[in-house]
Amino acid sequence: MLNYVLSRLLTFVPTFLGVTLISFAFIRVLPGDPIIVMAGERGVSQERYDQLAAQFGFDRPMYVQFWDYFTGVLQGDLGNSFVTKKPVWDEFFTLFPATLELSLCAMILAIILGLPAGVIAAVNRGKFFDRALMSTALVGYSMPIFWWALLLIIVFSGNLGWTPVSGRIDLLYYFPDPTGFMLIDSLASGQKGAFWSAIRHLILPTIVLGTIPLAVIARQTRSAMLEVLGEDYVRTARAKGMSPGRINSIHALRNALIPVITVIGLSVGTLLAGAILTETIFSWPGIGKWMVDSIFRRDYPVVQGGLLLIAVMVMIVNLTVDMLYGLINPKIRKR
Amino acid sequence: MTDASSTQTASAIGEERPSRLKEFWFYFRENRGAVIGLWIFAIFAFLALFGPWIAPHDATEQFRTNALQPPFWQEGGSTEFLLGTDPLGRDMLSRLIVGARFSFFVGIVVVSVAASGGILIGLLAGFAPKWVDTIIMRIMDIILAFPSLLLALVLVAILGPSLINAMIAIAIVLQPHYVRLTRASVMSERQKDYVTSARVVGAGTLRLMFVTVLPNCLSPIIVQAALSFSTAILDAAALGFLGMGAQPPTPEWGTMLAEAREFILRAWWVVTFPGLAILVTVLAINLLGDGLRDALDPKLKRS
């Protein structure tokens, strides 16, 4: 097991280097001179330009710049935003809880609806329930979520007036946010109605972001269950006279969960991509919206740093899933 | 390479091919969803090819006096504009019909570029020495570490927002999937006896790669092509929606949605129809992909 962990960790190193190199390269290839962009409308004199270039190190050879950037990254220094002048690292971790909260809620929604849907479909294979559930799942899987978000806004915010259209909480509530998770902070603040307001803001984004993972989990659970239900040990359990409910929940579902867990772990990238669209539409102050805004503002250090942090996060999650998988299934370790 | 062996294989393939196609069609036809998907896809392709000649109006012509007119079945609508008009008074139906060609174009170009590039690199990784293989696969890991839409977004920001650049970005992002898939099938096929015998007969590496092994790796790649066709359409629409894809006044479906956003609470039709067009198209292609997978890959037929 130790060997397996070490070998997986070793492959992490070149990938990390490559991801750093790519995010570093982007800022140098993006059109427009970063210093001119920073100076904005006022323009900049040649003298000041040279001074700034020296300050940011743009006048030095590329490999020196990369080395500086790389050593900075290892020490948690990703540079400062051109717009807010604050460190990229701090900005990322201020906004990250918002994205994490939304993604967690979306994932929970996807799991509590997707798992039972997959199991029900598998058990009723070929019958009405199966077909209805799997058709719905395919529609969800094909959904352009930015359109889905607009539809939900039309119906629930426009016509019914049930949910707000943007933000994380009503403006009339104000309280400190030690955790950054609006649900926890609003509850801890003790203000009447704050928690309810936070929930109402969370509902539509959660549904939008959870739709595709929900469809993927339902489809994956169904096919994993079907596979397991055909195994000999399930037949043995049936022959012993076990009730179908017990077989499905204890024997089948537990074994079917392994591939499902992998899918859940691997959908982190999908979630982050979805967060870009969802947060933009609902003005949700998370890292997805932050990245899109920064790309439009040509805030290069943010684009560079955010890209790197997001990629590293995806890599860490994938690595963890790989290791968990190795832990659950010894066959994988041996390869 | 002896003549005898190549003519023999040729005749063997010649005898086998019609039955293979027939078998494929037999399995494909069993799947009702896939056949429906195929029909919708055929209509979509037809609209993409002949859209401008079918559309009742010019897609960019502005009927200023008829701006934001609802669909014909609602009060205030007229049969002249069946699905209503957008904020600039352009006919929705015409824009949707003409818009089909952009999505179709995106799908075709992205899949051809990503698949041909990915297959080439994958074959190379499968046949090259171990260290080349390792380098290629590490590079693919790096690309896959970025969420696809984010990477495409940054790439388009670098290249400048346009439909062509969006397609290039999406093709780059989708390519690693083909590389992995091709390499994996090459690895398992290479060990089989028919490859060894081809090599013993004297087939060169290029012949082994493209003539002997590649045709036997194609099934999963075809399925992947169908699935990435729909991903490409979705991603291009998402980029258009974010203002980083096709630029107005192009009637691309995602761009149409972006233009309509501020009117969502006043005019439901300007938002509903373009999205519905995307959904139906993507759904049809996914149905088609599922059918292809079931028909081409007997191992998965059970599920």
From TrEMBL, chain A:
Cellular-component GO terms for this entry: plasma membrane
Membrane topology type: Multi-pass membrane protein
GO MF annotation: an example: dipeptide transmembrane transporter activity
Transmembrane annotation, as ranges: 9-30, 100-123, 135-156, 198-218, 256-282, 302-328
InterPro entries in UniProt: BPD_transp_1_N, MetI-like, MetI-like_sf
Subcellular location as annotated: Cell membrane
Pfam families per the UniProt record, alphabetical: BPD_transp_1, BPD_transp_1_N
Keyword annotations from UniProtKB, A to Z: Cell membrane, Membrane, Transmembrane, Transmembrane helix, Transport
The keyword Hydrolase is assigned to this record: no
Principal place of residence: membrane
Top-rank taxon: Bacteria
Domain ABC transmembrane type-1: start-end pairs: 96-325
Family: Belongs to the binding-protein-dependent transport system permease family.
PANTHER family: DIPEPTIDE TRANSPORT SYSTEM PERMEASE PROTEIN DPPB-RELATED
Annotated protein name in UniProt: Peptide ABC transporter permease
Gene: dppB1
Automatic annotation (TrEMBL), chain B:
Keywords: Cell membrane, Membrane, Peptide transport, Protein transport, Transmembrane, Transmembrane helix, Transport
GO molecular function annotation: dipeptide transmembrane transporter activity
Pfam families, sorted: BPD_transp_1, OppC_N
Localization annotation: Cell membrane
Topology class, membrane: Multi-pass membrane protein
Record domain ABC transmembrane type-1: where: 100-289
Biological processes per GO annotation: protein transport
GO CC, alphabetical: plasma membrane
Transmembrane parts of this sequence: 34-55, 102-128, 149-174, 226-247, 267-289
Family of the protein in this entry: Belongs to the binding-protein-dependent transport system permease family.
Protein name per the record: Dipeptide ABC transporter permease DppC
The species this protein was found in: Neptunicoccus cionae
Gene name, Swiss-Prot/TrEMBL: dppC
